[in-house]
Fold each of these.
Amino acid sequence: MNDAAATVVAQGLRKTFVGPDGNRFAAIDDVSLTVRAGELTALVGPDGAGKTTLIRMMAGLLKPDAGSLQVLGIDLTRDPQAVQDRISYMPQRFGLYEDLSVQENLTLYADLHGVPQAERRERFARMLEMTDLARFTERPAGKLSGGMKQKLGLACTLVRSPDLLILDEPSVGVDPLSRRDLWKIVQQLVHEEKLSVIVSTAYMDEAERCGQVFVFNRGRMLADGAPAKLRAWAHGVTFTARPPEAMPARELQARLIDRPELIIDAVPSGGSVRFIRRAGEDEKQLNEMLHDAPFAPRPEELEDAFMMLLRQAEDKDTKAAAKPAYEAPRVAAVSSNGANCQPVIVVRDLVRKFGDFMAVASTSFEVARGEIFGLLGPNGAGKTTTFRMLCGLLPATSGHLEVAGRNLRTARAEARGRIGYVSQKFALYGNLSVRENLEFFGGAYGLRGKALKARVAASLEQFDLEPSAQSGILPAGYKQRLAMATGLLHEPDILFLDEPTSGIDPLARRAFWRTITALAKSGVTIIVTTHFMEEAEYCDRIAIQDAGKVLALGTPHQVREQAGAASVMDMNSAFIAIVEQSRAQRETKGGAA
Amino acid sequence: MKTMRNFLDSLMKIMALVRKELLTILKDPSGRALLIGPALIQALLYGYGATYDLTNVPYAVHDQSRGAASTELLARLDGTGVFHRVATLTSSDQIAGMIDSGDALLVIGIPSDFETLRVSGQQAPLQVILDGRNSSTAGLASAYVSSIVAAYNQSLGGAPSVTIVRRAWFNANLESRWNIMPGLIAALSMLQTLMLAALSVAREREQGTFDQLLVTPLTPLQILIGKALPSILVGLIQSTIIFLIILFWFQIPMNGSVWLLYLGLLTFTVTSVGIGLSISAVALNMQQAMLYTFMLIMPLILLSGLLTPVRNMPEILQVATYANPLRFGIDTVRRVYLEGAGFSDVAYNFIPLVIVGAITLPLAAWLFRNRLA
């Protein structure tokens, strides 16, 4: 109460849940924080850090187990309704009524919040203008794109003027363009209306725009402060290394990330590798490791500080931090018939229509053996449809499709036998044990007897899996390992990965890509879809799709050049530039016709 | 040699799928319970609950004659053990009340001149007022009364020239339980297999595991067989449970060949699984699969002849029953069980069953891959 400028004050806050394995765990553990009014505040942290739990407590939807929580000067445990009357809260999946139009949704939420008729006209107009939805007021909400739905959700949340706006991961599952628009709206609100906003996010570039940042990991608050203050943590330890000619950046990155005693983090970016070294470690060793790769200091970013914090917390949790999250697989699959130039995937004039809707329009590309090929695009761009056709889940309307030397139209089962598939959501049998899942899929791929036993044993060891554990209650990271183990069990030529890194924390993502790099090196071809644009840097080549058409196809470097700017530009901006160029072209064409 | 190896390979893949299906059913505690519980409970419920036999008729008497003749007639009624007098009325005003309240199923009115007419050898009318709200029980009760009165007339001498001697074949006492229970061997297990099969693919679609299954080299045919076999097995186990209850608990004698009974059940169950898997392949999620199954089960049972004879239905519905595997399943089981029919006697039942199976099973296999997501 004494701090009039604070919107949220928490003291020793704690909330526990019963996990899927039946044990209690603390989703929020002894958290104390003060959120200042009138500015943008970010809660950042990997999935499962406790951001949503904290936000739901702030919105009065969950009761804390211990500690005190005041929002807008009101004790939440005593009078949650008084708080709810003054805040607006947008959950991760906002409850839009899909059959109602944009306008009807707005009106409905205005009715629910008792917004006086007199204020509505002005408020609606402003919301529709800000979200650029004025053109679509009659369209049913269910027929909007993912990004537009999210914007409508925000508009519905803001039908009244709250004293505090709380947004739970508003940019999850939203393509880069809509993400940018969404943030424009939020920043506009903060600047023009002096609104206090609390937003949770997993994107560091979003946190960078906030006045105050709270970093969470596994229920605990690791750090807090202004982005500049947090950034200073990483001062002097951030570098960029340039790989030698003909070496993909990801291989240099792998070399760096394999030395956790020297290197905190490394990611490929713009053809180089950005890395953070451990302070005070031997200069000589670093020089030795990077003997063929010149490196230079670079300015530190919030992301660097974040990765340092996470790595630090991880080191504390697992005393022996030297071991990588999983061992690089020893895949001996490659039956090297030397035909390295022979493409393993040939796509020619691939078309898929759903009724009148052209989901994929005349797409052609080839993928060579051992290549990592990325499919990128906004939601609904056709990348999932293309992906599903490639792995034989969806028949093509027309066109030629060849996978591992087999025509996918005539020799489907044979072609499928040569590919592995890891889906976005955990898609193995939850009530079977790890071993039973592996044995079943091994059997389905035609492994049996000794060969099956040997492969299952090897996979269990390689991915460090407990064979008798029930698959459905494994922690997320282990579920993904099991999915990978299953996809690789029959030693496929090609591995298909659908959004493999969504929902896992940055450290696990690094480890995951480390496995992928090793797989590609051993000759397995990787086809991957992702919405993390920076992950395109791991790929040899990428295809960017929008509205069913391939807009760009080539190495990340070529794609960046096509986007028009210098090669230092990050993938996210390149993506936005390319999609916008094509949309502008289409509009002028449409206008001329 | 190569075809042999291919066949063996295919067989092993199918067995892997069958093993997985059975594991998923057996590892789920509720799945295990569903295997035996419902069949057991429903068989007992139907056995005791679903009977048309009249064993307790509450009735009231309005006897205005109060003579020896009326007393004797009433004594005969009471002596059956089926008729229980709940009230003796003193005025005709009370009749309506007895029927309306449901206290009595029928009221027997004996006029005051009953005795005099009897003695003078004239026709003496007897009034029976029935509660027609339940027409079949009322009909049965009135038939009972008529036969008792007929027997009474006969005892008075003047024996009628023709007597009907009834011999009900296959069910000597014409117990409706005998009629219904064998049909349950088919009907109850169908409910379960239909549901199990309908949920099997829908569950996988909902949980995302079906995609993972579709990217394996398993062909639609192999998936179909692998999915069908466990459901068929469960269906036959349930049929066996009900069969044993009927045979040993309710002691309805079995006249036919067990082998033929099981051949019929197998064909019937395969067809049911075909319908279930087709539902499953169409449904997007488990909720839809359940809804479709429930929508289908009612007409399947109504048009099966389980409770009401098919030949009593309007012609158009009789035609519709040809598409109903349950009708032929029940007919086969009843005829084999009760009358000991041989294969040639029930062979005609297999034709529609095989036709329905031959349509639904390939349809399901085709839908696995071609259902638009």
Amino acid sequence: MSKVEFNKETGPREVFCGLTSIVWLHRRMPDAFFLVVGSRTCAHLIQSAAGVMIFAEPRFGTAILEEKDLAGLADAHEELDRVINDLIARRPEIKTLFLVGSCPSEVIKLDLATVADKLNKRFLGQVRFVNYSGSGIETTFTQGEDGALKALIPLMDSSDEEKLLLVGTLANNVEDRFKKIFRNLGISNIESFPPRQSTELPKIGKNTKVLLTQPYLSDTVRDLKHRGCEIISAPFPLGIEGSTKWFLAAAKAFKISELKVHEIISPLINRSKLALESHKEILKGKRLFLLPESQLEISLARFLHNECEMDLIEVGTPYLNKDLMKEEINLLPDNTKIVEGQHVEKQLDRVRESNPDLVVCGMGLANPLEAEGISTKWSIEMVFSPIHGIDQAADLAGLFSKPLKRNQILTSKTLVTH
Amino acid sequence: MELTLWTYEGPPHVGAMRIASSMKDIHYVLHAPQGDTYADLLFTMIERRGQRPPVTYTTFQARDLGGDTAELVKKNIKEAVERFKPKTLLVGESCTAELIQDQPGALAKGMGFDMPIVNLELPAYSKKENWGASETFYQLTRTLLKEKVSSSDKINPLRWRELGRRPKVNILGPSLLGFRCRDDVIEIQRILSEQGIDTNVVAPLGASPDDIERLIDAEINICLYQEIAEASCEWLKRNFGMEYTNTIPIGIKNTIEFINEVHEKLDLPLTNKEELENKSKLPWYSKSVDSNYLTGKRVFIFGDGTHAIAAAKIAKEELGFEVVGLGTYSREMARQVRATAKDLNVEALITNNYLEVEDAMKKAAPELVLGTQMERHSAKRLGIPCSVISTPMHVQDVPARYSPQMGWEGANVIFDDWVHPLMMGLEEHLIDMFKHDFEFVDGHQSHLGHTATNTNNILNSDEKKEKNSKEGIIWTESGRAELTKVPFFVRGKVKTNTEKYAILRGIPEISDETLYDAKAYFS
């Protein structure tokens, strides 16, 4: 392991909670509905984080707790029953209903697992109920997906069939590209988790080789291991380096030669390197500060340093699983400063003191930093854009070069007007 | 428990944040878990603010719950006070903290600070954003002025004369995330100044705690948005005898009435009465022959209480529209909205459920919708032009240009904003008419997107449903053909009326003639 500096920080934070992951999960599984059992704050959070108004009836909603629900838990259960009955009557096409716990439902100890059990019996063969918590007292942002996937594992049948299982939500087009490349490598049995239909869960067992596409799935990985799955140790498929090592690790697990991998992905690497050049020109030597939010920060830092030649000032992450991240950490330059957790005020002090060229941060902080003359990139865009894989490396770099390029345009005087 | 897919208002602590962020030298310590920090983006992204909201979130986690969350609150309060040095501290809790009952306000008061501390108790499970904003502004005003209550005589609104100066008023209610507040304030100050009236304090927008303490230097209060300022105005009236205005100066008539009301309250003679009618272009634009086509346009209105009521009045009295629907999500203003609706012979819709609003919109078959951003989406789905008149805020509702809703310029803005979508409606009709001409280039995309250009599909799918309806009415070939010739923006209404007529007369099949019979019957 390279000599990386680990720090922990506690204090006031500026991050989303796990409920936010519903924004991409509900799009991944169009036959599922996500029902948050929470407060008006939860409802307002999801609609604000989604950033757009709803163009049709959405496949997520909030059962908002009211005063009378807090008075007695028995009544709350009854009320939840009523809301769910109404919802299922209104949306008969829903195949899986996720009951999502929130801060208030966790604090009043609303037992959503028992509720889900009962409903599973009642709606057997019609709708499946799954429960997990996306509460901000337990989860940050992408950890919501970890919770949702973990909750699906008990529903997955066992099979000893050999397969490659890609775990973590990917953009559909990226997923298709990956599958094509794996097929070209000679791996034919490939499935994804989460699947595109909530009812088409992959079967898993001792010959399932799990390849993670996202770094924030600690709990899911643990439960997949318990089911006998083999976890392929690899960096994450962000950038050319990460993706190459990711493909190589998968190939190794399937006893496919390195030579074969290089043969297939070399043309991809070559054209991607070419595409990366113009972004590298802008990013090279620029100093980067990553604030914690998505848990993608370490992989992004590795890509932006190793392939775009940026200098790393500080790499924040809301949570660090050193075991899961060891391949990534090994690729980081010496003396990289990783900070787990956050004290947002102290961290912003460090941002100002270090005078970075670019800060990766949440939407609440971006404009205030811009107003101070510090260029930013909002982290939420990383979870909404197709950034994975060799073919997307230039697009990923583009997310970071664009704000800097824009700054150059706006501050330079190139037009001579008379 | 209430199933909510989308909500017009946030929780009450977001209302408190609107007050805190609108003001200077204030800090708000909010006992809340990390996810609640999402609310910052409302200010930094939607309002494009270059400053973070002055809020510290205590960020308690599940593992803190077994331990001492009260200590965590105190630690955060101490750090926030040292770092931000506020002149007044707001302390409160969001929905989750309300359940663990740490009493952060009481804790803060026990910490020995010199500055005033406002303890905000905003019940998250029964109240909403506007209520929270109103309550926060009220508690802040009360905290900062309560010591002056006994020592002050009642304020005589005519005292400016004895003092030998121009009359002074406060403008209360404008806040961040309020609809066009930034520009309304400028417009109203300009109007008052023209009348020889000075503005003492604008609050909460741009005010500091010192300014709140100066509120009583003015003679009267202008209550610009009842949702936010009425409770404070009422308290100032009760304790200092300060009168406040009731007229919201949106539209020409209300602006003139507002000016009259201010003058009456101050006993200031109004010298330029005749000029007032000509201050805005709206009256003439509305009178000009070009506007004849606006007569009787069916308009559906939904928004916050203040803007919905004002819109109804302008629509009916100043533009000659017919109001076919009126509603609000502001339960606090339900009574006033109901009264206005009654005057207009429509039933008021009081709801927080946008799907109910969409249903009502569909039934009312309007030609124009005045609503929130959500109604803009609903109207788009239904192929109806729409103009946005109210919060909740969207980045489009914070335009770069000066764009008030109040006063003379506000009336100009309203004329343009409401009439242009209608003109686009006409354009739509022309596209519909000319699309079979050989000169017509395919791809003349309408502003309504695919919905509008596919009106025939909508008609067909509607009809399929209609055939299965319990009335069992059948549209014959000729009836359907005739219906497609009706301009799309009144087609819904013609269809409903014809069916109504058919039921009334017991006609089982609607032909082209039935359409004309119904037309004559209802005209």
